[in-house]
Amino acid sequence: MLNKSPLWKTLMVAFIVALGALYATPNLYGEAPAVQVSGLRGVQADAATLDSIKTQLEANQLSYDSIALEDGQVLTRFKNTEDQLKARDVLDDNLGKQFSVALNLTPNTPDWLASIGGTPMKLGLDLSGGVSFLMEVNMQEALNKAKVGMVSDFRGDLRNENIRYRTVKEVNDDIVVIFRKVEDLEAAQSLLKKRYRDILLSTDDDTLTLTAKMTEQKIKEIREYALQQNITIIRNRVNELGVAEPLVQRQGQKHIVIELPGVQDTAKAKEILNATATIEFRLVDTEGDLSNALEGRVPANSILLTDKDGKPSLLKKRVMLTGDHITDAKSGFDEYSRPQVNISLDSAGGSKMSSGTKSNIGKPMATVFIEYKATDRKDAEGNIIFEKHQEIISVATIQSRLGKTFRITGSGSAAEAHNLALLLRAGALIAPITIVEERTVGPTLGAENVKLGFEAIMMGFGLVFIFMMVYYRAFGVVANLALGANLVLIVGIMSMIPGATLTLPGMAGIVLTVGMAVDANVLIFERIREEIREGKTIQQAIHQGYEAAFSTIIDANITTLIAALILFAIGTGPVKGFAVTLSIGIITSMFTSVVGTRAVVNVIWGGKRLDKLSI
């Protein structure tokens, strides 16, 4: 029988639309003001932190809707922004420097909906307000640092093997080594060829010169490493700002995008992003009296520092090694499956560590993290004043004489070892960065963007709704139902995709989709009218209308989808936002306009004797 769908097809359409509606529902509940407490530099909030927050809020008579500990963070929801701001100030004053306290807006999604993954769409910076930076990594400086390191390494290797040379220097993009004898040239070539498989070596016997050039693969690795490490370092610094849900991600081959929702002071954000942090290795002063030091009588050659838990230690003033010499740090496990951090140094750092640990085997060595934090004070020229903060992040016993590579044990857990490795790499930016673009979106403007974008979507939907209902009558109502289902599916899919963010251009993509979504129905309905005018029966006209228009609809939408995917692949942030909603809208509109309307039409008119059709 024509135009009668199997029950399972009808149920499938209903299930997909219902599922989309279910995951779109969280967007109706709005957001509540909240305070988010997160640990800094590897510290995680625990049950004790949760109890401390409850105690402080109750002591200050601050009521809250709910408080929960999740993923090492404590999130407290409040009824209004007044209580939220007061709670932020109270917790910021009492929790200490190992926690960041950030204002947040958290969804009011019911627990039953959240338990199945129901979350509202994330809004982009242009809709929520805040600061956005586009930063460019100086890749040439990263290559220059790599070449300087190679020069230092070559000198150290040749000296260690007693190979005499006149000079090692940089010449343009190459490293040139000049020798006195052919025998030394040949020995150096053999040595360097074994140790450095990612460089190309060439020699000139007449001038006794050896030239080393980095391979394209090595250059690519240096650039990739510089970009990834800078992202890690910047992300650590952004976390220190206490911003809720910051975004730090790469863009292209040498750019980093930083979005800080809720931050309006661009000067302070830039100062903190450009602030310096470093690592130092110092010997623990085992001869000094710690109790006297705690009373203020610190030995002249020592300093008193504490770790993240507040445990004090007396350290030597003389610095064995700074983090500038660290080239890599990775977490792993030792032969007893205990967490450890494997550290690699450059040639100069290896020499310093070797001489520093030679006579101190069996003594404890501390790793100290040093950073400069912004204060509320400014100097005479109006620049923000930074304060030096030092904290012990690890104390380990020197087991043997250390060189260019060594390991730090005693981290406690694999997570702590991983965080320590990140900190050791985050001492200084691998390559300088420059802010090439800066945008500030006020919270009022963000709210206005949301309002205007929503109005544009509703206006477009309303006009199309009226046109379809007037022009195609009952079939127009079916098309409008499909259009509404299409909007619901777009919102539901955007809410379901992790990392998907709705931006102002994304709203434009939705408005465009609303207009395009009925194109398929227009083609189908016009074909049905044409078949009726040619004398076909109603059922034949409906069947032929859908069958004949299907290939045209697929061709038109596939070409648009390809264009949208290209925009997503090569476009920047705003273009990507437009491409995401457009791509999702094309896919959902093909489903609702063809499969969805066919199911409704078959249920209402399919298999019946009809003399006329309301189209």
Taking Cα atoms only, what radius of gyration do you get, to the nearest Å? 33 Å
Structural class: alpha+beta
Large-scale geometry: globular
- The CATH superfamily label of the largest domain reads Multidrug efflux transporter AcrB transmembrane domain
Average pLDDT confidence is 82
The CATH class of the largest domain is identified as Mainly Alpha
Key features of this structure:
single chain; 615 residues; alpha+beta; Multidrug efflux transporter AcrB transmembrane fold; Alpha-Beta Plaits; 4 domains; four-stranded antiparallel beta sheet; 17 helices; 25% strand
How would you sum up this structure, described in words?
The chain has 615 residues and is an alpha+beta fold. The protein has four domains: 182 residues, Multidrug efflux transporter AcrB transmembrane fold, CATH 1.20.1640; 77 residues, 2-Layer Sandwich (Alpha-Beta Plaits), CATH 3.30.70.260; 80 residues, Gyrase A, domain 2 (2-Layer Sandwich), CATH 3.30.1360; 164 residues, Gyrase A, domain 2, CATH 3.30.1360. Helix content is 49%, strand content 25%. The strands form six sheets. It has a five-stranded antiparallel beta sheet with strand order 14-15-13-18-19. Strands 2-3-1-4 form a four-stranded antiparallel beta sheet, covered by helices on one side. A hairpin with a 2-residue loop joins strand 2 and strand 3. The longest helix is centred in the last third of the chain and has 54 residues. The two termini are 22 Å apart. The mean pLDDT is 82. Belongs to the SecD/SecF family. SecD subfamily. It comes from Colwellia ponticola. Part of the Sec protein translocase complex. Interacts with the SecYEG preprotein conducting channel. SecDF uses the proton motive force (PMF) to complete protein translocation after the ATP-dependent function of SecA.
